[in-house]
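Progress report, Aim 2. The chain analyzed during this reporting quarter is listed below.
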Amino acid sequence: MARNKISLWPWLGLAATILLLDQLTKVLIVGYYQLGDSTYVTSFFNVVRVHNTGAAFSFLASAGGWQRWFFTLIGIAASVFIVWMLRSHPGEKLFSFALACILGGAIGNVIDRVVHGYVVDFLDFHWSFLAGIFHGGHFPSFNIADAGITIGAVSLIVDEILRVRRSRR
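Predicted structure tokens for the chain:
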């Protein structure tokens, strides 16, 4: 059992790193940008300040306020479950990497919801080929926590594909 506790720490460290990067970047955005401010960086990327009261892609953003606590509770419950899963599978590297990325991102967005009542987003990517899907070709703005969650979700899918392939051998 002691070995499992020791091997859990690198994954919690990764989650903490994502969380710290997320919160540091959000502090900078909130400190230097007003809501709606935008800085051109490249032809396909801007730094902006956007507030998201909903979930991914602003899901339920205009639901009237109850979604703040709903998504906060989901984030807390997911974080508790993820820590339990990490304790149960610390030696499964890709799986644990995925969970740690999701954990760091989930906690980062929970902190925003509790402190601000919304999630601070600031990464704005845009390409003309997205114009038919997203307004003006702008992919919905996101943050480091969202990137961690996305990387974790993709890693979980890859882990499962690899697991299925191994089981067929």
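Residues 2-168 form one domain. Helices lie at 2-32, 66-88, 93-115, 144-168. These observations will guide the mutagenesis work planned for the next reporting period.
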